[in-house]
Amino acid sequence: MALLIAVLTLVLLVSASTSPAIALSLNHYEKTCPDVESIVAKAVERATMKDKTVPAALLRMHFHDCFIRGCDASVLLYSKGNNKAEKDGPANLSLHGFYVIENAKKEVEAACPGVVSCADILAFAARDAVVLSGGPTWELPKGRKDGRTSKASETIQLPAPTFNISQLQQSFSQRGLSMDDLVALSGGHTIGFSHCSSFQNRIRNFNATHDIDPTMHPSFAASLRNVCPIKNKAKNAGATMDPSSTAFDNTYFKLILQGKTLFSSDQALLTNPKTKGLVYKFASSKQSFEKAFVNSMIKMSSLNGGQEIRKDCRVVN
């Protein structure tokens, strides 16, 4: 994510804390911190100028935050004592760009102390990441609170890159997200990078009869096998989500139709009539995809169950 979701199985039910219990509003900071969005946008832009992978990292971070306990910035908390936090769970070990949010928070605190939540800052940053990548912008409801709980064990709730369509549907529906949202939000895979471990299952020992996933284009599979050789120990080995990996466009959906996406969960979108129809629709119309993506992002980012406004995004008050 870009939504590069790299986890195991979804077995735990999402708690009630992921319901939108806190009323959000477009003018939440109008009087208390009117410049907050421009402060965050500038921080994201500065970081992106130095590192082109920042937008995909921030978008993915926001997804991973929202899918555990709602969008409460629990993914930003550091492990403490015997408690292993979300960011140190297996699914989140490849997340990066935390410093961007921490720097933005410091600047916001200097302008408006104790007013803006880390959860809102992360939501703003994810939106800004899309814009900086050439994607659409949108008005973002504000007023999220930060959570006090972060457990690495709960990251098993994240949808995995190996998921089939029924597993994906279950994961999204438990968060109040529809099949339409599933396909639109999967489009976040248009930017970013994935490590070999997230798609290794498709290019070797796929099943008893096929070494390579037969839904994957043969030449594409061969290129991935070269990138991810069996004996390769390089931690950073992997592939970009699509050739235009820093541009937010609808190429991802075109690649699904060509059998040239990385994850089983990407290709799974063609195994259901509803999601297949949406893949074709978004592949043929960038405008349709962007409109759907914006609607689904607003819906997803409105899940919140936090309790406080952290002074430091890394620790609870």
Automatic annotation (TrEMBL):
Substrate binds at P159. The record marks R60 as: Transition state stabilizer. One of its GO terms (molecular function) is metal ion binding. CDD domains: secretory_peroxidase (cd00693). It catalyses: 2 a phenolic donor + H2O2 = 2 a phenolic radical donor + 2 H2O. One of its GO terms (cellular component) is plant-type cell wall. Coiled coil: none annotated. Disulfide bonds join C33-C112, C66-C71, C118-C313, C196-C228. This is Peroxidase. The gene is LOC107909481.
